[in-house]
Write a structure and sequence with these properties.
By secondary structure, the chain is an alpha+beta fold. About 35% of the residues lie in helices and about 10% in strands. It has 10 helices and 8 strands. The strands form 4 sheets. It has a two-stranded antiparallel sheet with strand order 1-4. It has a two-stranded antiparallel sheet with strand order 2-3. Strands 5-8 form a two-stranded antiparallel sheet.
Length: about 260
């Protein structure tokens, strides 16, 4: 009985001493935090998506109060969040242009040929490391859905044709999909952009091979640029790039493209 009593007394003493020491350490090593940090943190979306370019909401709140990040840096929170943060910081209203992701590839199972049967781990990253992707087109979407798995907003889903599809109403352009894609096929555009865009990333100059590998591949014929009445298409980079300040969404480039590489936003 005495042993049990002594044990309890010793445990209580140890707990008391540790509690006092922890309290002292907390006081000694305490770092004052700007109260604005917590106010900003409470105003954020709480998604911890990393779309701001930092480790998460806590890191962003600290950075924005220090002036190391912009008030409109929380892409998941959008314009309402940016306005709240700006008010906390005493800044004038900030403008936020919502963006969405776009997959620059139309290489479905039907139009993009496989190079061989792949028997490895069913992830895009593994297939890329093992054999530079599963398709003959070295620029094509591998189709195992790494992007879908990492999307924190449920804005991506795999289609039966082997390509991921984006729900623009859910996408906040956090960048997770782009980071997960080993082929770097995701672009981010203003959500209100109107006009044509190239659903292809093949920059090879081997024109005959492009058409053999994918029936939706851009083989650099330049027809879109020549036919565009607004002269707003530049193909000097190897793919059609549209100047949206000039594009009228007439659709001439889309109808003139032999492989229907261009699509309307």
């Amino acid at each position: 009985m005495n042993i049990i009593l002594y044990t309890v007394i010793v445990a209580v003493i140890i707990a008391f001493v540790l509690g006092v020491l922890l309290g002292l350490f907390k006081k000694i090593f305490h770092v004052d935090t700007d109260p604005k940090v917590q106010l900003v943190r409470d105003a954020l979306s709480g998604a911890n998506c990393g779309g701001c370019g930092l480790a998460g909401c806590d890191a962003f709140a600290s950075a924005v109060v220090k002036g190391d990040a912009p008030a409109n840096g929380c892409v998941a929170g959008g314009a309402a969040c940016a306005q709240k943060v700006a008010e906390i910081l005493g800044q004038a209203g900030v403008e936020v242009k919502p963006k969405v992701a776009f997959l620059a590839c139309a290489g479905t199972k039907e139009c993009a040929a496989d190079k061989a049967e792949y028997l490895g781990l069913r992830t895009c990253k593994a297939a890329q490391q093992a054999m530079n992707g599963t398709k003959k087109c070295a620029f094509g979407c591998i189709g195992f859905g790494d992007c879908v798995k990492v999307c924190p907003f449920g804005a991506l889903k795999m289609g039966a044709d082997g390509l991921p599809y984006i729900d623009k109403s859910k996408c906040v352009a956090c960048g997770k999909c782009a980071a997960a894609c080993p082929k770097h096929l995701f672009k981010f555009i203003d959500a209100d952009t109107k006009g044509a865009i190239a659903a292809c990333s093949n920059r090879s100059d081997n024109k005959p091979q492009i058409r053999k590998d994918c029936s939706k591949g851009c083989f650099k014929c330049g027809m879109c640029a020549r036919k565009c009445p607004a002269q707003c298409i530049d193909i000097s980079s190897g793919l059609p790039v549209i100047d949206y300040s000039k594009c009228t969404s007439c659709g001439t480039c889309i109808s003139s493209c032999p492989d229907k590489v261009l699509v309307m936003l």
